[in-house]
Design brief:
The protein is mostly helical and about 190 residues long. The protein has 8 helices and 2 strands; from the N terminus they run αβααβααααα. It folds into 2 domains: about 90 residues, no CATH class; about 90 residues, no CATH class. The chain has a two-stranded antiparallel ribbon. The protein is elongated. The two termini are about 35 Å apart. Keywords: Membrane, Transmembrane, Transmembrane helix.
């Protein structure tokens, strides 16, 4: 299996690593009020004339207020827009990936479970604190899907369906982590749910 390497978000999105961000000088947050009002007067006047010619009579003050608000909004959006990327070099071609070297989701999930289960040999407290609650969640989900029962709703029925060995393993205090044989028996019980 090929060694894993960290991939940045830019690489995932196809932005070349040598792309430079264009830095623009900071713009004033507001359009000068008199300039904005003057432009809004011209836009409102033109809109009023066109609408009047089309047979619509809309109050001029309403057209002015809408024009002024749109100008201020436009200016505010220009101030907060994201900087543009300027690409210095042509984009790199995508790397060829050998499908036999890429782990699929199932392999990754099994690898994580293998690591968690190996904790039982190295650190029993970590197994009890991290792995056992996840196994309990899986058992709860199987109960819910296959029998319509949850531990929270009907603990007696859930205990009956799980069996005493699985219930004790998942919910009774453990002095130490299980050995591989005990863990295999518990997993077998969970599969039977």
């Amino acid at each position: 299996m090929a060694p894993e390497r960290d991939v940045g978000i830019d690489e995932l999105l196809g932005v070349p690593a040598d792309a430079e961000v264009e830095v623009r000088p900071a713009k004033a947050a507001t359009l000068g009020p008199l300039r904005a009002a003057g432009i809004a007067l011209i836009i409102a006047g033109a809109a009023y004339a066109v609408l009047l010619a089309a047979g619509f009579k809309i109050p001029y003050i309403l057209l002015f207020a809408m024009s002024f608000a749109l100008l201020i909004l436009w200016r505010a959006l220009r101030v907060v827009e994201a900087p543009r990327l300027s690409v210095g070099a042509p984009p790199r071609p995508a790397a060829r990936i050998d499908p036999t070297q890429v782990a699929d989701g199932m392999q990754l999930a099994l690898g994580r479970w293998e690591t968690r289960l190996s904790w039982s040999e190295q650190d029993p407290q970590r197994f009890i604190a991290d792995v056992r609650p996840r196994l309990a969640d899986i058992a709860d989900e199987r109960l819910r899907q296959r029998h319509g029962v949850t531990r929270a709703d009907d603990p007696w029925r859930a205990r009956e369906l799980m069996g005493e060995r699985l219930w004790t393993f998942l919910f009774a205090p453990l002095a130490s982590a299980p050995n591989p044989r005990e863990l295999a028996a518990v997993v077998d019980d969970m599969e039977k749910l």
